Amino acid sequence: MMFPGYQLLSQRGAGKDGVAYLARQASTGNLVQLNDLTAAAANPRRWVRLSRQLQKIALLDHPGSRRLIQIHLDDEPRFVVLGSALSQTLADGLDQPSIQWPQTMGICVSLAEVLMHAHGLGVAHGKLYPSRIGLSDAGEPVIDFTEFLSLGVSSSATHRFDQACVPTSSDAGAVDRAANDIFALGAIVSWLLGVGQIGERGNQMVSGLADGDLAALESLVESMMAEDPLDRPLADEVCHELNARLPPASATRGSTYATAATSESIGTGGEEEGDTIDLKRSAPGPCDPGDLGGRRLGRFQIERRIGSGAWGSVYRAIDLADGATVAVKVLHPEHARCKDVVKRFRDEALILSRIDNPHVAKLLDVNCQDGVHYLAMEFVDGPNLATLLARYGTIDEHHALQILSDIARALVEPHADGVVHRDVKPANVIVQVREPGGAETLGSGDINLVAVTLVDFGLAQDLFNDVAEADGGDNAAPRSVVGTPAYMSPEQCGGEPVGPETDVYAMGATLFHLLVGRPPFLGDNIQKVIDQHQNQPAPRVTDLRAGLSDSLADVIDRTLAKRPVLRHADAEGLLTDVDRLLRGEPVSIEMHPIAPGDHDAAMRFRFEWPLKSAPAALWPHVSNTERLNQAIGLPVVDYSPQVDAEGGVTQSARAERLGMEFEWQEHPFEWIEGKQLAVLRDFQSGPFKWMISMVQLQGSSDGGTHLVHQVMVQPRSVLGRAAAALEVGVKAKRALKRVYHHIDRSLTAKDVDDPFRQPNRLKLARRRRLGILTDRLNTRGLDRRVIERLAHHIEKAPAQELARIRPLAFARQFALSDDSVVETFLAAAHEGLLVLYWDLLCPICRIPSDIKETLRELENHSHCPACNLEFEVDFAHSVELIFRVSPQIREADVKTYCIGGPAHSPHVVAQIRIEAGERFRLDLSLDVGSYHLRGLPCGLAIDFDVGQPGETSRWDVDVDARESSADPESGDPESGAAAMPAPEMKSGHQRLMLTNRSPREQVIRVERRSPRTDVLTAARASTLRSFRQWFPGEILAPGQLVSVGAMALMMVSISDGAQGSEVADAIAGQMFLGLTSEVVARHGGATLPGSADRIRVGFEDPSQAVLAALDLHQALLADGSIKNRLMRVALDHGGSVAVTVQDQIDYLGETSKAVERMFYHARPAELTLSIRAASDPVVASLTNERDLVGQIDSIETDDHEPTLIHRFRLP
Q1: Residue-wise over 73-92: b if at least 16 C-beta within 10 A, else e?
Q2: Residue ranges in 1083-1194 assigned as alpha helix (H)
Q3: What pLDDT shows up at residue 459?
Q4: Is residue 867 within 8 Å of residue 842, measured between CB atoms?
C-alpha cells in the first residue's frame, strides 16, 4: 500500500489496529511515524471509537503533546502521521543522581498544562507512567496520547516508579482515564518536588517556598492521589494551583494556550423554574450564567442556550472534533463553589460514562475551564414527553407501553451497576416521532416512534459507591429528599434509602400519566401529594380510562406498590412484564423446549443426584450424547436429513427397540454450555407422540453439582404409558444413575480409564500384536510417554473412541506434546497400528460432513447435509487428518447413536430454538473473547466481542433482521438495531433478548469465533517431513486444485563460491539442501518441488518461517564445510492452492509468484519479507526482539506496478 507524500523506510511494529512505520515526509524531509490503520477499520465498532479519539487529538496543538501531523480516516488508505518518537523518557531522568529544581518544577507545571489542554478537549492518556512520558532534547516532557492504538510499538520497559502512578482502582471510562492522569501526575509531582509520602523516596524537598505554599502543595498532592477519582481535582485546577504555588522561574506558557471562554465572561441573570425539587435543602436563588453563545468550552463551540434551570443551563454546541451537534450542560458559577454540588455534577458524568445505551444520551466529555464546570452529551432532538402530553392529553396503550419499554431499557444497565436515576418523569424523556400528515395524535396509533431517550442523571445515586449523603463532612448538605413529587416513591418522599424499585415506581407513575393524562396523585401543595404517595393506594387506571386491559392495570398496580419489595425488583423485571404485554408471554429458559402437545396428558419423570464434581468438569461428558446414549443402552440410530422449501434442514431418525420400530423427527438440541441441554423428539411411529429430555447442572455450595434429569413424554395409548413407566421410570433411571456416578468417579479417582464404562479387555493374541507394533515404535526414538499412552488407549478405550482419534485433541487430553503425538501417530499409521483418514469439516457447524480414505478422493467442493451447505474444500480449514485403530488390533465402533448434542459442536456456547413470534431471554456467562451470533435458516450472522469492562450486559436482537448485512453508516432510523454494529458485551453475565418475528422457527447459536487449535489440518500435515516421507501416496488427484487459505512460502539459496568452481558449488548446494531440510523440518515446514539453484519451502505459520530462516543463517555460519557463502531469503504469506507436482503436494498461486518476484530482488545476507508477512504481529514482534535492522523498498510487479517489501540484514 502506498501513502501519498510519504516514503516508508522501515517497520516499527504491528498489532491488531495496524502497522507502524518509520517514514520520511516528502515535503519536508523530516522523519515521522506513519500508522497504517487499515486493520482497525475492519472492526466497525472499534473504528468509530478510535477515529473519534484521533479526531479529538488532532485538535490538540501543544508542545507537550506528541504532534499529530496528518489524519486521514475517511477513505483508503486510512492512516495517521505523528512526529518522530523521542529516544529518552522521564524514567531515564528519574534515574539521574539529582534533577535540578528549576527543571523539576518546569516538568511538573508543563505536564499539568498539557493535561489541562488535553482534558479540555476530552483527551486523556490513562496510563501516564514515567516510562511512557518522553523527554525532548531540551528536557521538556512530551506525552503521546495515541498510545491507545495497538500497533506493537509501545516499549515493554518499565521503571520502578511506574507502579506508584497506578491508582488502586480504576475503570476504563473516559472520566476515570482523566482521573488516572491526575493521580499519576500527583505521584510524579510528589516524587520530583519531594512533597508528600512518595516525595520522601524521591528528590530533596523543593526549596524557596513559603510555609503556606509548601503546605498547599502537599495538600494538592494528597487530593490528586485521593482514592475516589471524583475527589481528585481537575487538570485545570491543578495547573492553576501549581502556577500559584511554585516560584516564578517555573511559570508556564498558560496564557499562550488559553481557551476561548473564561470565567470572566460568566455573569448572572434571571431565574427559570424547574420542576425537580430538593425538600430539605434550600432552593438556589436567582442565578443565570449569562449567554455563552459564540464562546468555546474545550472543543465545543457554543451556539445558543436551549434550556435553563435552578442549577445550570443547557446549550446547543458543535463538537469541533467531528462537527457533530451536542448538548453542553453548564453548572452555574454560584453553585460551583459548593463541593457537594460539584461532586454531584461529576457523579452524573461518572454514571453516564458507564452507560452505552441507545436510550440514554451518551456522555462525550466532562470538564472545567477557568472555573466553569460543564459536561457535554449527545444531542437528542425532539420534544419531551411532558410537551407531548400537554399537546395530546393522553397516549394510546400500545405507544405508551413502547415508550415505557424503552425507558426501562435505558435503566437496565444502570440498575445492574447499582445506579438509581431518582428522577424518572415525562420531562426527562425525549421522544423522537415521525408524524404522517402532521395532524395525527399519539392516540390514533399512526405516530411512528423513532427513538426514546432518558436524560438528566443529575440526581442519580450509585448504590455501590455512594456514602450516605449525611456523612459527607462539614461541606456536605444534610440528607436530601430529591426528585419530582408527582412521580416520587414513598421511600423517596420520606428521605429513606432508595434502590432500583424507586425508579420502578416512577416509571409506573409515568406510565399512569401517559395513559390517563395525569399523575397518580394530585394535590394543592407538595406535602399533600407526598402524603398520598406514602399513605393512599393509587387509583386503578381502568377506573379512569375505559378500554385499557386488566393485565396492563395489574402491572401498573404492582409498580405503584407502597413497599419496594412488592414491586418489580428492577428495570429488567418491569421490562419483562411490559414485553409480555406488547408481544405475548415470554418463555423462560426452564420451559424450553416448548412441548408440542397436551401438557396435562404428558408423563413427567424427574431424577436428581448430588455429584462431587463441579458443573464445568461434568459438562464435557454429560453433554456427550453420542457416548451417553450408547452407555445407557439406547439403540443405534439411522439419521436422514430432510430439506424443506426454504432451505431448512430437519433430521428424520429411525431405530428399533422393544421389538418395535420408532420413527421420529429430531429437533435441534438446545443447550447453554455448563448449565443445561435438552432435546425434543416428535414421533411418527411407536408408543409415544413426543418426548422431551432435559439435563440441568446446578452448582452446589460444597463445590459439587446437583444434577437434574427431567423427561416429559406423551404416550399414544395405555401401552405407551406402560412402556414409558418401565423404560423411562425404571430402566432409564437406573442406567442414568449408573453412568452419571461413573462419570463423577472418573473425574475424582485416578484409576478410572473411561468416564462412561468399564475398560475394555483385549484378547491375548491381539494384545501380543499390539505389543509387537509398539516395540517397533520404540525403536524409532519416539516419545515413550506418547507410545505408552497410545497403546493403553488402544487396549482399554471403548470402541467408539477408537473410530475417530484426533491427534491434537489426544495431546490436549493427556497433556502431551503436540509435535510428539503427531510424529508418533504418523509412525503408528506407517507401522499398521493406526489407519489414516481425512475428515471434511463444515465451516458452519464444524462437524465432519464426509470422510475420505485418501487425499486423491478430495474434490473442490463438499456438501454438509446437516446445514444443507455447499462449501469449498480448504486445506487450511476444512480438511482434518484423523486416525482409526487398525482392525487387526481392534474393531472400532463407527455406528451412530446421536448426531446433534453439544459434544459435536464444542465451539458452540449456546444453541436455542425460537418459535415464530417468540421472544426468548438467553442468559450467558461468557469470558472475554470473540464470538459469533448465528441464525438458521434466517441467515443471521453477527460478530461480537466480550470485553473488560465492555459496554453493555444486555443486547436486544431481532433474529430475522440480518443485522450483519446492515450498513453501519446508515442514518435511517427505521433500520433499528441493524444500523449499528454489535455492542461489546461486558464479561461475566450477559443477557440476550432474542425476538423471532419471522413466520417460522429459527435456531440461534452463540459460537466462539477463535479458531480451533485441536485440528491437525491437511495444510499443516502436508508440510511435515515425516508425513511426506511415510505417505508419499497421499497426494491430490492429477489436475486437482484445492484451496489452502493462507500459507507461508519461502525461497532460499546461497551464493556461489569466490573461485567459481562448478563442482564446489554443486557440493555446497547439496550440503545446503540437507541443512535446509533439517532446519525447516525442525520448525514444522516442508521442502517443496523447485529448481536446482534455489530451495522452496512451505509453512503454515509465517513466524515459524522467519525463525527457520534465522536458524538456517546461524547454522550456515557455524558449518565449516560451507565457507564464504551468503544466504538470501524471500518470504510471503497469503492464499495458495494445493496441487500435485512431481508426485508431491506443492503450493502454487499468487503467493508463489510473489515469492519468485521478491527472490529476484533479494540480496545476499538479507531476509526479504512482503508487507503482509512483515505486518503479522508475531513476525513484527520477532524482528524487533532479534534487533533486525530493516528498511522498506519498492519493486515492480509483473504489471509494472510498484509494491513494497521489507529488507532485513541477517546478523
Answers
A1: beeeebbbbbbebbeebbbe
A2: 1102-1118, 1150-1161, 1171-1174, 1177-1185
A3: 59
A4: yes
| DSSP E strands, 730-876 | 834-841, 848-852, 861-864, 869-872
Residue 402 near residue 364 (C-beta atoms within 8 A): no
DSSP letter at 865 equals T
Tell me whether strands 1166-1170 and 1127-1141 are parallel, antiparallel or unpaired. Answer: parallel
Closest CA to 756 of 902, 624, 891: 624
- Partnered with residue 1043 across adjacent β-strands are 874, 1137
The secondary structure of residue 162, as a DSSP letter, is G
Rg (CA), the chain: 35
Residue 974 has pLDDT above 80, yes or no: no
Of 267-276, 707-716, 1064-1073, the range with the highest mean pLDDT is 707-716
Buried b (16+ CB within 10 A) or exposed e, 951-972: bbbbbbbbbbbebbebeeeeee
Cell of 340: 457537594
Sign of CA dihedral 205, 207, 212, 217: negative
3-class SS letters over 68-94: EEEEECCCCCCEEEEECCCCEEHHHHH
| Mean pLDDT to the nearest integer, 619-642 | 93
Q: In whole angstroms, what is the distance from residue 1022 CA to residue 1144 CA?
A: 9
Q: How far apart are CA 46 and CA 48, in angstroms?
A: 5
Digit-coded pLDDT (tens) for 813-824: 999 999 999 999
- Residue (of 658, 797, 783, 640) closest to 728 by Cα position: 658
As a whole number of angstroms, the distance between CA 746 and CA 289 comes to: 74
pLDDT in tens, 1027-1077: 988 998 888 888 888 888 889 999 999 886 555 567 777 778 888 888 999
Interatomic CA distance for residues 1092 and 1088, integer angstroms: 12
Residue numbers belonging to the annotated binding site for ATP? 329
Name the binding residues: 329
Any idea of the CA torsion for 483, 484, 490, 491, to the nearest 10 degrees?
0
Give me the pLDDT at residue 436, please.
53
The secondary structure of residue 729, as a DSSP letter, is: I
What totals of helices (H) and strands (E) does the chain contain, helices first? Answer: 33, 49
